[in-house]
Design goal:
521 residues; 2 helices; mainly beta; 5% helix
Length: 521
Protein backbone atom coordinates (compact mmCIF):
# COMPACT_ATOMS: atom_id res chain seq x y z
CA UNK A 1 0.00 0.00 0.00
CA UNK A 2 1.33 3.45 -0.91
CA UNK A 3 2.41 5.79 1.90
CA UNK A 4 2.42 9.62 2.00
CA UNK A 5 4.89 11.57 4.10
CA UNK A 6 3.31 14.61 5.87
CA UNK A 7 5.19 16.69 8.50
CA UNK A 8 7.81 13.88 8.70
CA UNK A 9 5.05 11.35 9.36
CA UNK A 10 4.06 8.55 7.07
CA UNK A 11 0.30 8.01 6.37
CA UNK A 12 -1.48 5.61 4.15
CA UNK A 13 -4.04 7.06 1.72
CA UNK A 14 -7.12 5.86 3.73
CA UNK A 15 -5.61 7.33 6.92
CA UNK A 16 -5.01 10.64 5.20
CA UNK A 17 -8.66 10.80 3.95
CA UNK A 18 -9.95 10.22 7.49
CA UNK A 19 -7.78 13.02 8.89
CA UNK A 20 -9.05 15.49 6.27
CA UNK A 21 -12.67 14.56 7.00
CA UNK A 22 -12.21 15.24 10.73
CA UNK A 23 -10.61 18.59 9.99
CA UNK A 24 -13.56 19.59 7.81
CA UNK A 25 -16.01 18.79 10.62
CA UNK A 26 -14.01 20.90 13.06
CA UNK A 27 -13.57 24.03 10.97
CA UNK A 28 -16.76 24.31 8.83
CA UNK A 29 -19.65 25.73 10.93
CA UNK A 30 -23.02 24.03 10.75
CA UNK A 31 -26.13 25.77 9.43
CA UNK A 32 -27.63 25.97 12.94
CA UNK A 33 -24.41 27.53 14.30
CA UNK A 34 -24.56 30.15 11.55
CA UNK A 35 -28.15 31.04 12.43
CA UNK A 36 -27.31 31.29 16.12
CA UNK A 37 -24.42 33.61 15.42
CA UNK A 38 -26.59 35.77 13.23
CA UNK A 39 -29.38 35.93 15.84
CA UNK A 40 -26.89 36.71 18.57
CA UNK A 41 -25.46 39.51 16.52
CA UNK A 42 -28.94 40.91 15.91
CA UNK A 43 -29.95 40.67 19.57
CA UNK A 44 -26.78 42.31 20.72
CA UNK A 45 -27.47 45.54 18.82
CA UNK A 46 -26.82 48.35 21.26
CA UNK A 47 -28.06 51.85 21.83
CA UNK A 48 -26.03 54.28 19.72
CA UNK A 49 -24.57 57.45 21.19
CA UNK A 50 -24.60 59.84 18.23
CA UNK A 51 -23.42 62.93 20.08
CA UNK A 52 -22.29 64.23 23.49
CA UNK A 53 -20.05 67.19 24.34
CA UNK A 54 -18.51 65.19 27.20
CA UNK A 55 -18.22 61.39 27.34
CA UNK A 56 -16.82 60.09 30.65
CA UNK A 57 -15.97 56.60 31.86
CA UNK A 58 -14.92 56.13 35.50
CA UNK A 59 -13.16 52.79 35.92
CA UNK A 60 -13.00 53.25 39.68
CA UNK A 61 -16.79 53.37 40.00
CA UNK A 62 -18.20 51.22 37.20
CA UNK A 63 -16.59 50.74 33.83
CA UNK A 64 -20.02 49.89 32.37
CA UNK A 65 -21.36 53.31 33.45
CA UNK A 66 -20.84 56.05 30.88
CA UNK A 67 -21.58 59.64 31.75
CA UNK A 68 -22.76 61.95 28.96
CA UNK A 69 -22.99 65.76 29.14
CA UNK A 70 -24.18 68.47 26.74
CA UNK A 71 -26.09 68.26 23.42
CA UNK A 72 -26.76 64.57 23.78
CA UNK A 73 -28.26 62.67 20.89
CA UNK A 74 -29.02 58.95 21.22
CA UNK A 75 -30.48 56.54 18.68
CA UNK A 76 -32.13 53.14 19.09
CA UNK A 77 -33.80 51.60 16.06
CA UNK A 78 -36.29 54.26 14.79
CA UNK A 79 -36.16 56.33 17.98
CA UNK A 80 -34.08 59.45 18.59
CA UNK A 81 -33.52 60.75 22.13
CA UNK A 82 -32.18 64.15 23.21
CA UNK A 83 -31.31 65.51 26.67
CA UNK A 84 -28.82 67.69 28.61
CA UNK A 85 -27.19 64.85 30.58
CA UNK A 86 -27.42 61.08 30.77
CA UNK A 87 -26.01 57.84 32.15
CA UNK A 88 -25.46 55.13 29.58
CA UNK A 89 -25.23 51.52 30.83
CA UNK A 90 -23.51 49.86 27.91
CA UNK A 91 -23.77 46.24 29.03
CA UNK A 92 -27.36 46.57 30.24
CA UNK A 93 -28.25 48.57 27.11
CA UNK A 94 -30.04 51.20 29.19
CA UNK A 95 -30.12 54.99 29.44
CA UNK A 96 -31.08 57.39 32.21
CA UNK A 97 -31.56 60.89 30.83
CA UNK A 98 -32.07 64.20 32.63
CA UNK A 99 -33.33 67.69 31.75
CA UNK A 100 -35.00 68.66 28.50
CA UNK A 101 -35.72 65.09 27.51
CA UNK A 102 -37.08 64.79 23.98
CA UNK A 103 -38.00 61.56 22.19
CA UNK A 104 -38.82 61.46 18.48
CA UNK A 105 -40.36 58.43 16.77
CA UNK A 106 -41.43 58.52 13.16
CA UNK A 107 -42.69 61.69 11.52
CA UNK A 108 -45.41 62.66 13.99
CA UNK A 109 -44.65 61.56 17.56
CA UNK A 110 -42.74 63.74 20.01
CA UNK A 111 -42.43 62.98 23.72
CA UNK A 112 -41.06 65.49 26.26
CA UNK A 113 -40.21 65.34 29.97
CA UNK A 114 -37.62 66.06 32.66
CA UNK A 115 -36.47 62.48 33.24
CA UNK A 116 -36.22 59.34 31.10
CA UNK A 117 -35.35 55.74 31.77
CA UNK A 118 -35.01 53.76 28.57
CA UNK A 119 -34.33 50.03 28.19
CA UNK A 120 -33.04 49.27 24.71
CA UNK A 121 -33.54 45.52 25.10
CA UNK A 122 -37.26 45.70 25.96
CA UNK A 123 -37.95 48.93 24.08
CA UNK A 124 -39.71 50.46 27.10
CA UNK A 125 -39.40 54.09 28.12
CA UNK A 126 -40.47 55.73 31.39
CA UNK A 127 -40.78 59.51 31.32
CA UNK A 128 -41.75 61.79 34.19
CA UNK A 129 -41.80 65.45 35.10
CA UNK A 130 -44.07 67.74 33.04
CA UNK A 131 -44.61 65.03 30.44
CA UNK A 132 -46.05 66.05 27.08
CA UNK A 133 -46.76 63.68 24.20
CA UNK A 134 -47.59 65.20 20.81
CA UNK A 135 -48.92 63.11 17.94
CA UNK A 136 -50.27 65.10 15.02
CA UNK A 137 -53.03 67.34 16.49
CA UNK A 138 -53.21 65.41 19.77
CA UNK A 139 -51.45 66.71 22.91
CA UNK A 140 -51.21 64.56 26.06
CA UNK A 141 -50.10 66.07 29.39
CA UNK A 142 -49.35 64.06 32.54
CA UNK A 143 -46.80 63.73 35.37
CA UNK A 144 -45.42 60.34 34.36
CA UNK A 145 -45.77 58.06 31.36
CA UNK A 146 -44.75 54.56 30.28
CA UNK A 147 -44.14 54.27 26.55
CA UNK A 148 -43.78 50.96 24.69
CA UNK A 149 -41.58 52.02 21.78
CA UNK A 150 -41.90 48.77 19.81
CA UNK A 151 -45.73 48.69 19.92
CA UNK A 152 -46.10 52.48 20.17
CA UNK A 153 -48.39 52.38 23.23
CA UNK A 154 -48.35 55.09 25.92
CA UNK A 155 -49.80 54.59 29.42
CA UNK A 156 -50.39 56.86 32.41
CA UNK A 157 -51.83 55.91 35.81
CA UNK A 158 -51.92 59.18 37.73
CA UNK A 159 -54.14 61.61 35.86
CA UNK A 160 -53.74 62.87 32.33
CA UNK A 161 -55.11 65.62 30.11
CA UNK A 162 -55.54 65.32 26.35
CA UNK A 163 -56.31 68.17 23.96
CA UNK A 164 -57.64 67.13 20.56
CA UNK A 165 -59.30 69.66 18.29
CA UNK A 166 -61.99 71.36 20.44
CA UNK A 167 -62.08 68.54 22.99
CA UNK A 168 -60.19 68.43 26.29
CA UNK A 169 -60.22 64.95 27.85
CA UNK A 170 -59.11 64.09 31.38
CA UNK A 171 -58.95 60.82 33.33
CA UNK A 172 -57.05 59.06 36.11
CA UNK A 173 -55.86 56.20 33.89
CA UNK A 174 -55.22 56.33 30.16
CA UNK A 175 -53.74 54.24 27.36
CA UNK A 176 -52.89 55.70 23.96
CA UNK A 177 -52.39 53.32 21.02
CA UNK A 178 -50.50 55.54 18.60
CA UNK A 179 -50.87 53.20 15.60
CA UNK A 180 -54.66 53.07 16.02
CA UNK A 181 -55.08 56.76 17.02
CA UNK A 182 -57.09 55.41 19.96
CA UNK A 183 -57.22 56.46 23.62
CA UNK A 184 -58.62 54.20 26.32
CA UNK A 185 -59.66 56.06 29.48
CA UNK A 186 -60.71 54.79 32.91
CA UNK A 187 -61.77 56.36 36.18
CA UNK A 188 -63.24 59.88 36.32
CA UNK A 189 -63.26 60.35 32.54
CA UNK A 190 -64.32 63.80 31.35
CA UNK A 191 -64.60 65.52 27.96
CA UNK A 192 -65.00 69.30 27.89
CA UNK A 193 -66.18 70.85 24.62
CA UNK A 194 -67.49 74.38 23.99
CA UNK A 195 -70.95 72.85 23.40
CA UNK A 196 -71.10 70.17 26.13
CA UNK A 197 -69.42 68.34 29.02
CA UNK A 198 -69.27 64.54 29.04
CA UNK A 199 -68.39 62.34 32.01
CA UNK A 200 -67.91 58.58 32.02
CA UNK A 201 -66.51 55.65 33.94
CA UNK A 202 -64.79 54.07 30.92
CA UNK A 203 -64.32 55.52 27.45
CA UNK A 204 -62.40 55.01 24.21
CA UNK A 205 -61.67 58.00 21.99
CA UNK A 206 -60.41 58.03 18.41
CA UNK A 207 -58.29 61.12 17.78
CA UNK A 208 -58.84 61.03 13.99
CA UNK A 209 -62.59 60.31 13.75
CA UNK A 210 -63.27 62.27 16.99
CA UNK A 211 -65.64 59.48 18.12
CA UNK A 212 -65.99 58.60 21.82
CA UNK A 213 -67.04 55.03 22.75
CA UNK A 214 -68.65 54.34 26.15
CA UNK A 215 -68.54 51.07 28.07
CA UNK A 216 -69.87 52.25 31.42
CA UNK A 217 -72.22 54.85 32.96
CA UNK A 218 -71.89 57.97 30.79
CA UNK A 219 -73.52 61.39 30.96
CA UNK A 220 -73.43 64.29 28.50
CA UNK A 221 -74.74 67.76 29.30
CA UNK A 222 -74.86 70.36 26.55
CA UNK A 223 -76.64 73.50 25.43
CA UNK A 224 -79.12 71.60 23.25
CA UNK A 225 -78.76 67.99 24.42
CA UNK A 226 -78.47 65.92 27.59
CA UNK A 227 -77.65 62.22 27.34
CA UNK A 228 -77.21 59.22 29.64
CA UNK A 229 -76.30 55.64 28.77
CA UNK A 230 -74.12 52.74 29.83
CA UNK A 231 -72.99 51.74 26.34
CA UNK A 232 -72.71 53.55 23.03
CA UNK A 233 -70.73 56.10 21.05
CA UNK A 234 -70.79 59.81 20.28
CA UNK A 235 -69.26 61.50 17.26
CA UNK A 236 -68.01 64.76 18.79
CA UNK A 237 -67.35 66.26 15.35
CA UNK A 238 -70.66 65.45 13.62
CA UNK A 239 -72.70 65.52 16.86
CA UNK A 240 -74.17 62.10 16.14
CA UNK A 241 -74.79 59.56 18.90
CA UNK A 242 -75.91 55.95 19.20
CA UNK A 243 -76.47 54.72 22.74
CA UNK A 244 -78.03 51.76 24.50
CA UNK A 245 -78.43 50.15 27.93
CA UNK A 246 -80.58 52.46 30.10
CA UNK A 247 -80.30 55.13 27.40
CA UNK A 248 -81.95 58.55 27.83
CA UNK A 249 -81.73 61.60 25.54
CA UNK A 250 -83.15 65.02 26.40
CA UNK A 251 -83.12 67.26 23.30
CA UNK A 252 -84.92 70.17 25.02
CA UNK A 253 -88.11 69.25 23.16
CA UNK A 254 -88.54 65.67 24.33
CA UNK A 255 -87.01 63.28 26.83
CA UNK A 256 -86.49 59.98 25.00
CA UNK A 257 -85.90 56.60 26.63
CA UNK A 258 -85.22 53.31 24.87
CA UNK A 259 -83.15 50.15 24.78
CA UNK A 260 -81.29 51.70 21.83
CA UNK A 261 -81.28 55.35 20.77
CA UNK A 262 -79.83 57.19 17.79
CA UNK A 263 -79.76 60.99 17.52
CA UNK A 264 -78.14 63.46 15.15
CA UNK A 265 -77.95 66.76 17.00
CA UNK A 266 -76.95 68.61 13.81
CA UNK A 267 -80.13 67.61 11.93
CA UNK A 268 -82.34 67.03 14.98
CA UNK A 269 -83.31 63.54 13.74
CA UNK A 270 -83.43 60.49 15.99
CA UNK A 271 -84.59 56.89 16.19
CA UNK A 272 -85.43 54.66 19.17
CA UNK A 273 -85.78 50.90 19.42
CA UNK A 274 -87.49 48.71 22.05
CA UNK A 275 -89.15 50.05 25.21
CA UNK A 276 -89.34 53.55 23.75
CA UNK A 277 -90.73 56.40 25.86
CA UNK A 278 -90.97 60.00 24.58
CA UNK A 279 -91.84 62.46 27.35
CA UNK A 280 -93.13 66.02 26.97
CA UNK A 281 -92.93 67.51 30.46
CA UNK A 282 -94.33 70.88 29.34
CA UNK A 283 -97.59 69.44 27.97
CA UNK A 284 -97.69 66.54 30.48
CA UNK A 285 -97.81 63.79 27.88
CA UNK A 286 -95.78 60.70 27.01
CA UNK A 287 -95.61 58.32 24.06
CA UNK A 288 -94.56 54.67 24.40
CA UNK A 289 -93.80 51.96 21.85
CA UNK A 290 -91.10 49.68 20.50
CA UNK A 291 -90.01 51.89 17.59
CA UNK A 292 -89.97 55.64 17.09
CA UNK A 293 -88.45 58.30 14.87
CA UNK A 294 -88.51 61.97 15.73
CA UNK A 295 -87.38 65.40 14.60
CA UNK A 296 -86.47 68.20 16.94
CA UNK A 297 -87.34 71.13 14.63
CA UNK A 298 -90.00 71.38 13.40
CA UNK A 299 -91.04 68.98 16.12
CA UNK A 300 -92.61 65.75 14.89
CA UNK A 301 -92.45 62.04 15.70
CA UNK A 302 -93.94 58.65 14.86
CA UNK A 303 -94.27 55.68 17.22
CA UNK A 304 -95.41 52.16 16.36
CA UNK A 305 -95.33 48.57 17.68
CA UNK A 306 -97.52 48.67 20.84
CA UNK A 307 -97.72 52.46 20.60
CA UNK A 308 -99.38 54.25 23.54
CA UNK A 309 -100.16 57.94 24.06
CA UNK A 310 -100.47 59.00 27.71
CA UNK A 311 -102.05 62.24 28.92
CA UNK A 312 -100.50 62.45 32.38
CA UNK A 313 -102.63 63.56 35.30
CA UNK A 314 -102.08 63.26 39.04
CA UNK A 315 -105.67 62.10 39.49
CA UNK A 316 -106.12 59.73 36.56
CA UNK A 317 -103.98 59.48 33.39
CA UNK A 318 -105.51 58.82 29.97
CA UNK A 319 -104.01 55.99 27.83
CA UNK A 320 -104.50 55.76 24.05
CA UNK A 321 -103.27 52.76 22.06
CA UNK A 322 -103.14 52.42 18.27
CA UNK A 323 -101.08 50.66 15.65
CA UNK A 324 -99.32 53.96 14.87
CA UNK A 325 -99.18 57.28 16.72
CA UNK A 326 -97.64 60.35 15.11
CA UNK A 327 -97.39 64.06 15.81
CA UNK A 328 -96.51 67.14 13.77
CA UNK A 329 -96.14 70.84 14.50
CA UNK A 330 -98.78 72.88 12.68
CA UNK A 331 -97.98 76.48 11.77
CA UNK A 332 -100.42 79.16 12.92
CA UNK A 333 -100.41 82.85 13.72
CA UNK A 334 -98.17 82.25 16.74
CA UNK A 335 -94.43 81.91 16.21
CA UNK A 336 -94.30 78.46 17.83
CA UNK A 337 -97.32 76.83 16.16
CA UNK A 338 -99.06 73.94 17.87
CA UNK A 339 -98.76 70.16 17.92
CA UNK A 340 -101.30 67.86 16.28
CA UNK A 341 -101.20 64.21 17.27
CA UNK A 342 -102.79 61.39 15.25
CA UNK A 343 -103.47 57.75 16.15
CA UNK A 344 -104.73 55.33 13.57
CA UNK A 345 -105.78 51.71 13.13
CA UNK A 346 -107.36 50.01 16.12
CA UNK A 347 -107.51 52.86 18.65
CA UNK A 348 -108.34 52.04 22.25
CA UNK A 349 -108.65 54.57 25.11
CA UNK A 350 -108.60 53.83 28.82
CA UNK A 351 -109.08 55.95 31.88
CA UNK A 352 -110.74 54.73 35.04
CA UNK A 353 -113.85 56.84 34.42
CA UNK A 354 -113.79 56.85 30.60
CA UNK A 355 -113.02 54.26 27.92
CA UNK A 356 -113.34 54.37 24.14
CA UNK A 357 -112.58 52.65 20.84
CA UNK A 358 -112.45 53.83 17.24
CA UNK A 359 -110.41 53.31 14.11
CA UNK A 360 -108.53 56.62 14.26
CA UNK A 361 -108.34 59.83 16.29
CA UNK A 362 -106.54 63.15 16.50
CA UNK A 363 -105.51 65.32 19.45
CA UNK A 364 -104.94 69.05 19.04
CA UNK A 365 -102.70 70.75 21.58
CA UNK A 366 -104.13 74.07 20.47
CA UNK A 367 -107.58 73.43 21.97
CA UNK A 368 -106.90 70.16 23.89
CA UNK A 369 -109.55 68.28 21.91
CA UNK A 370 -109.53 64.54 21.10
CA UNK A 371 -111.49 63.76 17.91
CA UNK A 372 -112.57 60.16 17.23
CA UNK A 373 -113.40 58.83 13.76
CA UNK A 374 -114.90 55.69 12.16
CA UNK A 375 -117.35 53.78 14.39
CA UNK A 376 -116.37 55.43 17.68
CA UNK A 377 -117.65 54.13 21.01
CA UNK A 378 -117.25 55.78 24.43
CA UNK A 379 -118.08 54.21 27.78
CA UNK A 380 -118.65 56.38 30.85
CA UNK A 381 -119.60 54.48 33.98
CA UNK A 382 -122.73 52.47 32.96
CA UNK A 383 -123.34 54.40 29.73
CA UNK A 384 -122.27 53.48 26.21
CA UNK A 385 -122.20 56.36 23.69
CA UNK A 386 -121.95 55.90 19.91
CA UNK A 387 -122.14 58.16 16.84
CA UNK A 388 -120.53 58.75 13.45
CA UNK A 389 -117.79 60.90 15.01
CA UNK A 390 -116.97 62.37 18.41
CA UNK A 391 -114.91 65.05 20.16
CA UNK A 392 -113.68 64.99 23.75
CA UNK A 393 -112.77 68.43 25.11
CA UNK A 394 -110.24 68.44 27.95
CA UNK A 395 -109.07 71.16 30.30
CA UNK A 396 -106.17 70.89 32.75
CA UNK A 397 -105.77 67.19 31.89
CA UNK A 398 -109.43 66.50 32.77
CA UNK A 399 -112.47 65.85 30.58
CA UNK A 400 -114.59 69.00 30.28
CA UNK A 401 -117.27 67.98 27.76
CA UNK A 402 -118.08 65.41 25.09
CA UNK A 403 -119.71 66.02 21.70
CA UNK A 404 -121.25 63.36 19.41
CA UNK A 405 -122.03 64.18 15.79
CA UNK A 406 -124.67 62.43 13.65
CA UNK A 407 -126.61 59.39 14.91
CA UNK A 408 -125.81 59.95 18.59
CA UNK A 409 -126.93 57.04 20.76
CA UNK A 410 -126.71 56.32 24.50
CA UNK A 411 -127.37 52.87 25.96
CA UNK A 412 -127.11 51.43 29.46
CA UNK A 413 -127.95 47.92 30.60
CA UNK A 414 -130.87 47.40 32.98
CA UNK A 415 -130.76 43.59 33.10
CA UNK A 416 -129.85 40.74 30.76
CA UNK A 417 -132.43 41.72 28.11
CA UNK A 418 -133.41 45.33 28.81
CA UNK A 419 -131.46 48.48 27.92
CA UNK A 420 -132.18 52.14 28.57
CA UNK A 421 -131.74 53.94 25.23
CA UNK A 422 -131.59 57.59 24.14
CA UNK A 423 -130.83 58.79 20.61
CA UNK A 424 -130.78 61.96 18.56
CA UNK A 425 -129.00 63.85 15.83
CA UNK A 426 -126.23 65.26 18.07
CA UNK A 427 -125.23 65.06 21.72
CA UNK A 428 -123.23 67.10 24.24
CA UNK A 429 -122.13 65.56 27.52
CA UNK A 430 -120.81 67.64 30.42
CA UNK A 431 -118.24 66.50 33.00
CA UNK A 432 -117.31 67.64 36.46
CA UNK A 433 -114.19 66.18 38.12
CA UNK A 434 -114.00 63.70 35.22
CA UNK A 435 -117.56 62.46 35.93
CA UNK A 436 -120.41 62.72 33.38
CA UNK A 437 -123.28 64.59 35.05
CA UNK A 438 -125.48 65.98 32.22
CA UNK A 439 -126.31 65.13 28.60
CA UNK A 440 -128.13 67.32 26.07
CA UNK A 441 -129.51 65.73 22.89
CA UNK A 442 -130.57 67.95 20.01
CA UNK A 443 -132.68 66.97 17.02
CA UNK A 444 -134.94 63.95 16.49
CA UNK A 445 -134.74 62.88 20.09
CA UNK A 446 -136.04 59.45 21.15
CA UNK A 447 -135.85 57.79 24.52
CA UNK A 448 -136.65 54.43 26.02
CA UNK A 449 -136.03 53.84 29.70
CA UNK A 450 -137.37 51.47 32.32
CA UNK A 451 -139.01 52.43 35.59
CA UNK A 452 -137.58 50.66 38.62
CA UNK A 453 -138.81 49.98 42.11
CA UNK A 454 -135.63 48.91 43.82
CA UNK A 455 -134.34 46.12 41.64
CA UNK A 456 -137.73 45.38 40.03
CA UNK A 457 -138.79 46.77 36.66
CA UNK A 458 -142.28 48.28 36.98
CA UNK A 459 -142.75 50.05 33.69
CA UNK A 460 -141.37 51.19 30.34
CA UNK A 461 -141.34 54.85 29.24
CA UNK A 462 -140.91 55.46 25.51
CA UNK A 463 -141.14 58.91 23.93
CA UNK A 464 -140.09 61.23 21.10
CA UNK A 465 -139.27 64.94 21.13
CA UNK A 466 -136.97 67.47 19.50
CA UNK A 467 -134.52 67.84 22.39
CA UNK A 468 -133.77 65.82 25.51
CA UNK A 469 -131.87 66.70 28.70
CA UNK A 470 -130.54 63.83 30.81
CA UNK A 471 -129.15 64.18 34.33
CA UNK A 472 -126.76 61.52 35.58
CA UNK A 473 -125.78 60.76 39.12
CA UNK A 474 -123.04 58.29 40.03
CA UNK A 475 -123.02 56.95 36.49
CA UNK A 476 -126.76 56.29 36.31
CA UNK A 477 -129.59 58.21 34.67
CA UNK A 478 -131.43 60.03 37.45
CA UNK A 479 -133.77 62.31 35.48
CA UNK A 480 -134.86 62.83 31.85
CA UNK A 481 -136.40 66.08 30.59
CA UNK A 482 -138.11 66.14 27.19
CA UNK A 483 -138.45 69.48 25.40
CA UNK A 484 -140.38 70.73 22.39
CA UNK A 485 -143.56 68.72 21.71
CA UNK A 486 -142.80 65.47 23.48
CA UNK A 487 -144.88 62.39 22.60
CA UNK A 488 -144.75 59.24 24.65
CA UNK A 489 -146.39 56.56 26.71
CA UNK A 490 -145.73 54.32 29.72
CA UNK A 491 -146.37 50.58 29.47
CA UNK A 492 -145.80 47.69 31.80
CA UNK A 493 -142.60 45.76 31.00
CA UNK A 494 -142.80 42.85 28.61
CA UNK A 495 -139.86 40.49 29.32
CA UNK A 496 -140.56 38.34 26.30
CA UNK A 497 -140.49 41.31 23.92
CA UNK A 498 -137.39 43.55 24.55
CA UNK A 499 -137.52 46.82 22.63
CA UNK A 500 -134.60 48.22 20.61
CA UNK A 501 -134.53 51.69 19.11
CA UNK A 502 -133.24 51.94 15.55
CA UNK A 503 -129.43 52.12 15.53
CA UNK A 504 -129.01 50.23 18.82
CA UNK A 505 -125.74 48.29 19.17
CA UNK A 506 -124.08 46.89 22.28
CA UNK A 507 -120.26 46.67 22.36
CA UNK A 508 -119.64 45.69 25.94
CA UNK A 509 -117.31 42.85 24.86
CA UNK A 510 -114.99 45.45 23.28
CA UNK A 511 -114.79 47.69 26.34
CA UNK A 512 -111.27 47.99 27.87
CA UNK A 513 -111.84 47.52 31.61
CA UNK A 514 -108.20 47.89 32.62
CA UNK A 515 -105.17 49.55 31.06
CA UNK A 516 -103.80 46.29 29.62
CA UNK A 517 -107.05 45.77 27.67
CA UNK A 518 -106.19 48.57 25.23
CA UNK A 519 -103.88 46.07 23.48
CA UNK A 520 -106.74 43.61 22.85
CA UNK A 521 -108.10 43.40 19.31
Amino acid sequence: MAEIKLFNAHFTLPELRHILYVLLLLFIPSKADGQGASASKKDSKKIEILNADIYEINDNIDRDLNRLLGNIKIKDKDVLMFCDSAYYYKTKNQVRAFSKVHIIQGDTLNLYGNYLFYDGTTGNAFVKGKVELIDKDTHLYTDSLNYDVANRIARYNDRGRIINDKNTLTSIVGVYKVKDNLFHFKDSVKIVNPDYVMTADTMDYNTVSKIAYFTGPTELKGDSLDLYCEKGWYDTKKKVTSVWKNAVIDNRKQIIHGDSLFFNDSTGYGESFRNVVIEDTVNHIAIEGNYAWYYKQPEKFLVTDRAVFIQISKQDSLFVHADTISAITVADTSLKGYRLMRAYHGCRIFRKDLQAKCDSLSYSFQDSVIRLYTSPVIWSEENQLTSDSMAVFTKNQQTDRLELYNAAFIASQVDTIRFNQIKGRSLTGYFKNNELYKINIKGNGESLYYLLDGEFVTGKNQSKCANIEVLIEKGKVSEIYEHDNPEGFIDPPLPANPVRLEGFKWFDNLRPRKKQDIFNN
